[in-house]
Amino acid sequence: MAATFFVVPQWQGSGSSRAMRLLDGAEAIRGDLPASATVIVEVPLGAGSDEGTGVHRLSSIIAVRDSLAAALTDASGLPLVVGGDCGVELAAISAAIASGTTAVIWLDAHPDLNTPESSPSGAFHGMVLRTLLGHGVEALIPTVALAPTHLILAGTRAFDDAELDFATESGIRVIGPEKLSADSITEALRATGATSLYLHVDLDVLDPAFVDGIGFPEPFGVSLPQLLEVIAAAKATLPLVGAGVTEFAPASPEVAGDDLGSILRIIGALAG
């Protein structure tokens, strides 16, 4: 199945001082995607309001979610979402889990399992996965929630205390960078009992030695060859129904090209 690329330059979900640079990152990636297979999802110009909740810029996040959901409904091919911040995955993963028994591999340095009450920042990109699991602001929770047994945190190494408590209590599978391999991801996927797969890649899953343009680098991460090996093994285990690549925030448009070679290899591995 050919891929359709959805470029969603959302920055409103980010809590990084580099949030606005997510626009440059999405645009840099878009420039190397096939125009005939690329859909640009418009993002509000303004920050938006928290609507009286603990989620900063909630109104803009809802607007982007709805726009991407509509675009996904109208398009054909394997959906591959290019962010923007991790919050763009809300619509894409909601659609994937509503359509079947879908496992989600969350390749990310951070688990993004906070709620508005536990979040130290109020930034939605740190809450999106917890929202997909059915917890958080009611207006954002999907109709069909992701089951914890269908989730694998991979390459994850920077937990807030509340996130670690929730992951442990919920029995969520966690594979740290040092144990992440083709074999470990295959075993974990088979244990989910799922019949299809969504792959989320936050670029900060990579060790900082392999990528510069990220807002929240964490040491001791995954190598690029390791990540590509895991993607290939996951796709060989279950059919891929969607994927996302998020959080590219280059220091400037001029230096975005320094990371594009690696990013395009990841996108190629997902889309190929």
Keywords:
272 residues, 8 strands, alpha/beta, 8-stranded parallel sheet, globular, Arginase, Chain A
Structure commentary:
- The chain is of the alpha/beta class and 272 residues long.
- It has a single domain (3-271), classed as Ureohydrolase domain (Arginase, Chain A).
- The protein contains eight helices and eight strands, in the order E-H-E-H-E-H-E-H-E-H-E-H-E-H-E-H.
- The protein has helices at residues 21-30, 58-74, 89-98, 128-132, 161-170, 182-192, 224-237, 257-271, and strands spanning 3-8, 38-40, 78-83, 102-107, 151-154, 173-175, 196-202, 240-246.
- An eight-stranded parallel beta sheet has the order 2-1-3-8-7-4-5-6, sandwiched between helices.
- Helix 5 (161-170) links the parallel strand 5 and strand 6.
- It is globular.
- The N and C termini lie close together (9 Å).
